[in-house]
Amino acid sequence: MTAKVHIQPALLLVSILCFLSVSGGKSYAQNYIVCGKIHCFKNLALENIQITSKKTKQVTSSNADGTFSITCHKNDKLILLGQGFERITQKVTEGESPTIKLIFKGGSYALKKAIASEHVSKNELIFAVNNYSYYNNHTQLNLLEHNFSHKYHIKRKQVFTHNFTRHNIIYPDYYSNLNYKNY
Q1: Which of 23, 77, 88, 169 has its CA at a distance of 20 to 30 angstroms from the CA of residue 156?
Q2: Model confidence over 35-63: pLDDT tens digits?
Q3: Domain 32-107 is classified in which CATH homologous superfamily?
Q4: How far is residue 42's CA from residue 11's CA, in Å, rounded to a whole number?
Q5: What pTM was estimated for this model as a whole?
Q6: Cβ neighbours of residue 146 closer than 8 Å, sequence gap 6 or more
Q7: Cβ(118)–Cβ(47) below 8 Å
Q8: Which InterPro entries does its entry note (predicted)?
Q9: Is the sign of the CA dihedral 153, 156, 160, 162 positive or negative?
């Protein structure tokens, strides 16, 4: 009878050790799945965006309609990376279905990278860039000022008109009061 008493605690200890070795010593009760959507501009879905859970280290990618699902841990953050787009870190909570907007970096290099990485089709991205004011409620003058503000000091005093053709993107004529001075 004494041998039986010693076997039960040993069996319990072995069972606990097996469970810990299988689970890696971590409690998975705090893990949950986050399902979300990634887009740029107003509603342009982004595909093949890399999403990484900072705590669980799981990595996934968005599909053709921009949706994704990933296992996260309590108080986790998602890191979103896409060629031609700014890196985003987004805090997530259980039960949340985030819609995350990535910011297009702009310029020919970012355009080429976004298209080559198949985040979005060339036609869709060019349309979105050409219709920036529609997607972001900015005038095309605001876009022009933003793109050149790091190089020029812009004052709205003189009339400036030009038809921009750059990287197969055609910008319409700008009729704005602009005066720019190189720094």
Answers
A1: 169
A2: 999 998 878 899 999 999 999 999 999 99
A3: Carboxypeptidase-like, regulatory domain (2.60.40.1120)
A4: 60
A5: 0.58
A6: 138
A7: yes
A8: CarboxyPept-like_regulatory (IPR008969)
A9: positive
